[in-house]
């Protein structure tokens, strides 16, 4: 029962949208994986609560765990992104080629850049919305 309470206590639809965007997927892409229309995905992303069985399917389609989807926060992504570079032991003298950095971290530079750009875009959207409210 605690599991349902936790899931329903958060706006899970927004988390689905954020992860979908971070993964570079459109609503149509996610809909194809789930066997639903992009309109159904849009509606789901606007919903605060999603049934656990559906949530499990969505998590699988997004390539994340169900728990990871439930606990997703942008702050956590930023934290891991920042620590990713701090803990890579990369310095100006030992970075070498880009492929060397990718091998050290097992996370491609392209993925890190896309993730960071998407997070910046989301933050800019939030800022714009807050500014419009004033």
| CATH superfamily label of the largest domain | lambda repressor-like DNA-binding domains
Computed over alpha carbons, the radius of gyration is: 17 Å
- Enumerate the spans where pLDDT stays under 50 for 5 or more consecutive residues: 1-9, 94-104
Compute the number of strand runs: 0
Shape: globular
The percent range for strand residues is under 5%
- Helix tally equals 9
- If classified by CATH, what would the architecture of the largest domain be? Orthogonal Bundle
CATH topology of the largest domain, by name, is: 434 Repressor (Amino-terminal Domain)
Could you describe the 3D structure shown?
The protein has 134 residues and is mostly helical. It folds into 2 domains: 2-71, 434 Repressor (Amino-terminal Domain) (Orthogonal Bundle); 74-133, no CATH class. It has 9 helices and no strands. It has helices spanning 2-9, 12-22, 27-34, 38-45, 52-62, 66-71, 74-86, 98-105, 109-133. Helix 2 packs across helix 4 (38-45) and helix 3 (27-34) packs across helix 4. The longest helix is centred in the last third of the chain and has 25 residues, at 109-133. The protein is globular and about 40 Å long. Residues 1-9 and 94-104 have low confidence and may be disordered.
How does the SSE layout of this entry go?
Layout: H1 2-9, H2 12-22, H3 27-34, H4 38-45, H5 52-62, H6 66-71, H7 74-86, H8 98-105, H9 109-133
Helix pairs in contact: 2-4, 3-4
